[in-house]
Amino acid sequence: MAENRLSGQQMLTFSCNGVMYGFDIKAVTDIIEIPELTKLPMVADYVLGVMNLRGKVVPVMDFAGRMGFEAPEYDDHSCIVVIDCDGAALGVKVPRVVDAETYDPDAVSLSPVAGSCVRGYLELGGRRITVIDQVKLGR
Amino acid sequence: MSKFDAGMEAMLDTFVFESSELLENLDNILMRSESSELTSDDIAEIFRVMHTIKGSAAMMGLKNMSELAHAVEDIYFVVRENPDLEFDRSKLYELSFQTSDYLKNEMENLSDDSVPLTDFSEFEGTLREFAAYLTGLSKGEVPAAAGGQKLEIFPADEPGDIKTVKVTFSEGCMMPAIRAMVLMNSVDGAVGTIPSDLEADSADDAIKGDGFYIKLRTDDLDGVIAVLKDGVDVETVGEIKRPARAKAPKAAAPAAPQGAHTYKIKFEENCLMPAIRAMVLLNSVGEKGEVVKTEPADLESAGAEGIIKVNGFIVSVKTDDPEGVLAIIKDSVNVESAEEIKTGEEKPAEVKDEPKKQAAPAQAGQGGASGGGSSALISVRLEKLDRLLDLVAEIVITESGVTSSPDLKQFTGNLDRFSKSARELKKLTDELQDVVMSIRMVPVQTAFSKMSRVVRDMNKTLGKNVELVFVGADTEADKSVVDILGDPLMHIVRNAVDHGIEMPEERAAAGKTEPARVTLSAGYESGEVVISCEDNGAGMDPKKLLAKAKKNGILTKPENEYTDEDCYQLIMAAGFSTNETVTEYSGRGVGMDVVRKNIEKVGGKMQIASELGKGSKFTIRIPLSLSIIDVLGVEANGAEFSVPISSVREIFKAEPEMMLSDPDGTELIMLREKCLKVIRLGEAFGIEGERKPLGEGILLYCSEGGREAAVYVDELTSDQQVVVKPLSILLNKFELKSKGLSGCSILADGSITLITDINELFRYNGIRAANEADRG
């Protein structure tokens, strides 16, 4: 059951194609460099494969691909944010992690779209941050 | 409402685990002694089991279980005290087994709040009646004195100024040793007691038999006696004068309650039952030192909660390790703050009018897990072992990462010593890995011994006098395998006794002289654990089975195509039961079906053999360890996969004369008069790549689940053992499992390999199983 209120006071923000996105920081377990990935056959294109995260096999998806965006530019700053989706670890490849920012959960305008990966939108320091629902992202 | 004390949830697992072990142990003792002799050791052990369960159930707040255990304890108390008593033994066993079952059931339902606590009072009545009957029998005899030896009340080296007070407790007093402990705490200047160790198991009996003696130094003996007389359950109190004797040679230093450290403990405000917390705390502190005094003294009194909430809980402990005690206290649940009160002299409100009781340190934990006496075993949570295994795997991977680091290759100097150490490290990590793997191995005995109980109970009700024999019960298998075996074995053994073994008169009529017997055996065979259950009963008649299956409409092919082997397999089909009447134990026709499913779920197989009139044999084969398999590393269109060796029958290269293709262009291969479909692994998995001619690569003749085909791969890369891990649940939506990818594994160099499931791969790619082909 989804909570009405967003838990946590901080979010990890990252940018993709010039837009800012955020994960609830409580859901973020690791931020790592892009490791060697083992490709999986017969999966969607946005699933980049699986990686070895300290002895655990963790699937990795491309954030832009998952959202249906154009492929962004990846560089040295690109990394994998490991998030916890209802107990299962998921690596999300993002072009660039920006910052960890404090926010007021009540200030998030919830998205009216049911089943969307976007939980809501937040105005922070003059920027709009799209807050991602990590559990829906993993589904 | 929760069934047990709030705040005890954390203990629930431990409680259930320990109590189950104890009950298992109890069953074993009962079973062993029922047919032979009930030795005093057995009685003591049963007594201990019940005592421990009583204590820990009380600690959990499970009054019903505690009282039930208590009632049984009472029975065994009488039995223990009167070793020569002649009584109705079968009744004793009946009641004991019933208790064991009741307690087990109750524990199973503990975590389910929808099932209310069972009221055992009626059964307890039966138990008490029996205890009374036993007591009645024993009354005729000499009252049970605790041994014949004369009690030494006045040791020779005792100083002259020590007074001795004898206290006797009323007959109905439940735990005199604990009462005695409380009394000790209520008097000043006590230096010793007889019996000296009040926590010893024997203390209760010694006090019941000889009374309780307190040695003390006091100027106000009458005052002390008055205090003692006020004690709960105290019947008489009186000073015992030392008989005239030679002067004491020397004054031994009395163990005065000096060196006691006093701690003040504050519980968190939201702590629900501070008095219970305090009791639990006392229990853990008791391991570090002797609890001399608590304030409030009576933790069970109604006022205790309030006092603790307002004043905090004060405990004095005699210990060598005051810091350690403080640490224990601070680490305890709900403890907010704890400090040592340095002024050791502070003795709050010494003499109280109310009778003082001290929390009975529950016996939980004391030898709880050790089951059969003091064996060198400990119990560990399986998750911890899993974690350990994971860690070891990581260490192995990291080790190879360090020793084959690319940085080393750039270094041009001498690496001799490094290499030596690296080799050493490798040896150690390899050994570590082996040891950790072996920790998870447990003997199948645990699964077997449960069957003794099943057979015993069935013997009672069916009157078949079946003898259960174990062979190779010390065979070890992975813990998860042994756990899975429990249910299938139960079904099979029940079936063997119920359907397999004939009634005694039938056996006699058939001229069978040997006793009815069910043999459970275990052993290894080529990387598999083989468990079999063999009976010397009637055996199965394939024709009857077939007729029955026909009647039930579960035949899948023409009747005349069924071999005997096929017929036996029918009993594992859903909706099949050979017994006309459904009994308590079997006959609903669901059993064997479930058994087969459970076994297949863990990669096992089941075979049935039978000979009419001679008996039947059920054989289960399960991989030794569920998680470790041998695989072949293969490359297909540039991607690497692992194929379980158990699925591969033969590896060969395709020669031109073997290749053919049908009109649709499907590639086929002839292997010794067998025509096999070729599955290109790369294409089956949808990996793009150049389609090489068949002759260039390698073909694996695989067979699994009755399906056969040749799998084409570009190259063989390795042959290794891997630990199978399931793929992340986040990938479930891609249904990789049903497309032929069963899991993955991390290799020694940290890379990941994907493991194929040949059976699913063939199914997904339209290869039919042999029996399906017949119908097609």
What tags apply to this protein structure?
heterodimer, A: 139 residues, 6-stranded mixed beta sheet, 5-stranded mixed beta sheet, B: 776 residues, alpha+beta, Four Helix Bundle (Hemerythrin (Met), subunit A), Alpha-Beta Plaits, Helix Hairpins, 24 helices, 40% helix
What does this structure look like?
- The complex is a heterodimer of chains A (about 140) and B (about 775).
- Chain A is mainly beta and about 140 residues long.
- Chain A is about 5% helix and about 50% strand.
- In chain A, the strands form two sheets. In chain A, strands 8-1-2-11-10-9 form a six-stranded mixed β-sheet. A five-stranded mixed β-sheet of chain A has the order 3-6-7-5-4.
- In chain A, β9 (about 110) and β10 form a beta hairpin.
- The two termini of chain A are about 15 Å apart.
- Residues about 1-5 of chain A have low confidence and may be disordered.
- In chain B, α1 packs antiparallel against α4 (about 90-110).
- Helix content of chain B is about 40%, strand content about 20%.
- The two termini of chain B are about 60 Å apart.
- Chain B is α+β, with helices and mostly antiparallel strands and about 775 residues long.
- Chain B folds into five domains: about 10-140, HPT domain (Four Helix Bundle (Hemerythrin (Met), subunit A), Up-down Bundle); about 260-340, Histidine kinase CheA-like, P2 response regulator-binding domain (Alpha-Beta Plaits, 2-Layer Sandwich); about 380-440, Helix Hairpins (Orthogonal Bundle), CATH 1.10.287; about 445-625, 2-Layer Sandwich (Heat Shock Protein 90), CATH 3.30.565; about 630-775, OB fold (Dihydrolipoamide Acetyltransferase, E2P) (Beta Barrel), CATH 2.40.50.180.
- Chain B contains 24 helices and 26 strands.
- In chain B, the strands form six sheets. Chain B has a six-stranded mixed β-sheet. A five-stranded mixed β-sheet of chain B has the order 10-12-13-15-14. Chain B has a five-stranded mixed β-sheet with strand order 24-16-17-26-25.
- At the A-B interface, β4, β5 and β7 of A face α12, β25 and β26 of B.
